[in-house]
Amino acid sequence: MGEAQRLFFLFLGALLIYNILLIRFIALCSFFGVSTRMTTSIGMGLAVIFVMTMASAVSWVVWNYVLVPLHVGEFLYIPAFILVIASLVQFEEMVIRKISPALFRAMGIYLPLITTNCAVLAAATESVKPGFLKLHIPYRFSFIESIIYTLGVALGYTIVIIMFTAIRERIEGAPIPSSFRGFPIAFIVAALMSLAFMGFAGLFGL
Amino acid sequence: MWIILKAALSMAGLGLGLGIILGIAHKKFAVEVDPNVEKILNVLPGANCGACGYAGCEGAAEAIAKGEAPVEACVAGGHEIAEQVAHILGKDVQRKRKPTVSLVHCKGGKSKVSHRYRYDGIPSCSMAQQVASGPLMCTYGCLGFGDCVRACPFGALSLDGNSIPQVDVDKCTGCGLCAKTCPKDIISLVPKDVPVIVFCNSKDKPRIKRNICTVSCIGCKACEKVCEVDAVVVQNNLAVVNYEKCNGCGKCVGKCPRDCLNFLELKA
Asked: Residue B70 sits in a domain of what CATH number?
């Protein structure tokens, strides 16, 4: 398998086959919380792509150059990554506010939400401790691999939340029994979408 | 013991490093915010109705602080808010805006107008309007799915038992979002002190109107004849009140044989 092909499969695996929302059920809070209007879900998706990629890049550096050399990574990675991600989001907020007020207005309110989002922490953790590959030998992502992998996770989040929002906006006007209105029908929709995404398992024999 | 020390030191070092970076960034990327913007924002209603033409109250506050918008830019706030904003900026209110209120010019509703077909689609006026102008015989009448109720950011509108929106005059700020939303253009903004309203919007022929709706204006001119100041005139088969002339004597109200001319306070 060539290098480019391997990276492509890694990306696709993170995007569809092990989709963070529908297959692994991480970050369901924001998935149901901000998926009522298309504009907000697109804003959230873009913010997640941005923050997640940056966060895993920084986490990779911290893991490989601070935690591993000191032999404290195995038990200290969660507090360390939370610290790094929280400061990174603060930093990004300041920079975006200075450089592009328009982008800040579009994305600004979602950035603080993402500070404590479990999807970002999960992606950062997995980019240094790949869990889903089910390998018997310990495997460590290179920097490029971790970026590609996180980009796949973040894009998977964005695509699914946009699809979900489109369905929810249509459902708003549908004749649904009153006891199913709102969250109950949203959960059913999410479950059906999850079933559909299970179909990606086995794609390319991965 | 050594590993605890190492863990504590590495976390402390990480925190210190990030703290210093954030501290420098805070100085370097500081954005100067006009203190007036926040003050104005606190005064504005905060409903983000968009009637001023800006993206929400924050956009309006920025524009007012910069001088791009007049101090009375907030439509919903009215004169009171304009005065407070003017006080913050040390300016004077230019012109006095008459307080307005939105009104639904229809009393028909589901029980009083006959239907052409049964509408089973999405419960929304704009959707029903696309299916041959809605299920009512009267193509001018209120469809009663409450698009205006959902559009109102102040909760001033509500559907009554007959599916006709009723305006809470105290809550209505006259922002006009409901009038923009209504696909039938039934809602209009009228001065808050207006005494008399015509509750019909149909420009159909009187004979047709009489057959399809029990509360339609049939253009009988009873109100026009009784009015002493010529404020009520029948145009296009429909009585229209000229609010600049009307003195609110109320003589026309009792004369209407179809019960579609009424006072605002009664709200029918």
From this structure: 1.10.15.40
